Structures are given as C-alpha cells and as structure tokens.
C-alpha cells in the first residue's frame, strides 16, 4: 500500500527504538512518538491517536501489555504489534487476549515484521472504510433554539446538559455552545445508538469521548472528562456496560 500510516513505538531500549523507527519509515509508517514507559504509551495514544501501536512488553513502570489493556478498557481498539525479548507464556497469553496482530520475539525477523505491518494496514483500512460509510449517512437532529427550528449534525455534538426545567445546553465540537428548550428525551429519540445517557441530566456522544476514569468517590462509577469544556460528567455503573460495548466498536 502506498498510503502512510501513523504509529507510536513504545520501547525502553533507545538503540533498538532507533532501529524500529528506521524500519517503520521504510514500511510507510510515520512515527508520532516513542515513549519508553507504559504510562507514556497511554498518554501518547490519547494525545496523538495513532493508527498503530508497536510496543515492547518490558517497559518502565507500567508494562506494555498492561498499558494496552488499559487503553482497550477505555474503548480504544488500535491494532497492536508486540516486539519483545520476553518469552514468558503469560505475556504470550496477554498478547492473544489483546487481539494483537502479532507477538514477535527478538532477534527481529524482518519478514515476519513486514507481514505483521501488512496485516495491520489492512485492518486500519477496513476501519477507515467503515468510518467513511458512516460519514455518508449524517444524522441531523432538530431542536428548538430561540423559538425557531434548528438542525444540528449529530457528529458535531459532544454532550448535552440539562441546566434547569425546559433549559438545556448543547456543547458542540470546536467549543460551540447552543441553548435549547428541546429536552433530552426528545433529542435522544432522534439520535443514533452512539448518543447515550450516562446520567439522567446528560447525553453524551460516544464518538467524542476522550477520557474516562474511575470515580474517585463512588465505587463502580466512572467519570467522563472533557478538558476543552472543563467538565466532568458522571457515568454510572448501570450505564458503563453499554458504554464499553459501544465504544469498543468505534476505535
């Protein structure tokens, strides 16, 4: 394939990391970042949103498998290729559970690595095709704004909040905010399955969620974090399974 794909390479050994960067460039991969720790890998994926993750198991502090598992629990299903010295059966099993493209032991086999990259590219292309098809079927949501009908593209909705009785605020991409008298139930019935209610006072668009963390105060609950809007939205334990099921099909 002639297209260029982005990747993050997580590797503790600086010399081997440089080798992987050179090989990646030869295989039409653009390296966005090279974290050396599992925590750095998690942060890098959220920041750069790469097409592919290439990671060692033996990273600093948090290992590569645990980092990828955390990302998967957040609903991020980016293709993963594991390249590692580790021959621990538990690590092989962990790679399988993550549905990684391949687990390649060192010394690195170029032929096997190229095949793994090829498989990853095919998976990425399939995901992009599905996203393109979805884009062609935009869903417009009709609301009341200042006593007039107004249409909003569902994909532009980040979240919607009930402010008070008969007063709601729609938060759109790029930081735009629109007040409406159309209630949450009337809006949600027009939306696709990707717009859910994590709490009775909110609707959220799963495609716009960037970060979900455990609630530090209520065990079993979670919090949806929106740094752009300086907003934290509760995700109750009752709604979390639906969130996890739907979000995993987006990434």
UniProtKB/TrEMBL annotation:
The keyword S-adenosyl-L-methionine does not apply. The modification 4-aspartylphosphate is found at residue 56. One of its GO terms (biological process) is regulation of DNA-templated transcription. SMART domains: LytTR, REC. Keywords: DNA-binding, Phosphoprotein, Transcription, Transcription regulation, Two-component regulatory system. It comes from the Bacteria. Residues 6-121 form the Response regulatory domain. It holds the Pfam family Response_reg. One of its GO terms (molecular function) is phosphorelay response regulator activity. One of its GO terms (cellular component) is protein-DNA complex. This is Response regulatory domain-containing protein. The lineage of its organism: Bacteria, Bacillati, Bacillota, Bacilli, Bacillales.
């Amino acid at each position: 394939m002639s297209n260029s794909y982005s990747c993050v390479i997580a590797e503790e050994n600086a010399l081997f990391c440089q080798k992987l960067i050179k090989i990646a460039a030869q295989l039409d991969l653009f390296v966005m970042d090279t974290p050396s720790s599992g925590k750095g890998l998690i942060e890098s994926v959220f920041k750069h949103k790469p097409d592919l993750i290439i990671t060692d198991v033996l990273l600093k502090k948090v290992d590569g498998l645990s980092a990828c598992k955390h990302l998967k629990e957040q609903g991020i299903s980016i293709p993963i290729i594991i390249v590692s010295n580790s021959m621990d059966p538990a690590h092989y099993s962990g790679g399988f559970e993550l549905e990684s493209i391949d687990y390649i032991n060192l010394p690195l086999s170029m032929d096997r690595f190229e095949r793994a990259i090829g498989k990853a590219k095919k998976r990425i292309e399939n995901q992009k095709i599905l996203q393109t098809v979805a884009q062609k079927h935009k869903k417009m949501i009709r609301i009341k704004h200042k006593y007039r009908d107004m249409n909003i593209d569902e994909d532009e909705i980040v979240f919607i909040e009930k402010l008070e009785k008969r007063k709601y605020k729609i938060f759109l991409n790029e930081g735009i905010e629109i007040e409406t008298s159309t209630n949450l139930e009337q809006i949600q019935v027009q939306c696709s399955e990707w717009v859910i209610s994590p709490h009775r006072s909110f609707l959220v668009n799963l495609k716009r969620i960037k970060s979900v963390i455990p609630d530090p105060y209520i065990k079993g609950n979670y919090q949806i974090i929106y740094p752009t809007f300086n907003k934290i939205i509760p995700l109750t334990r009752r709604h979390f399974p639906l969130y996890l099921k739907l979000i995993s099909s987006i990434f």
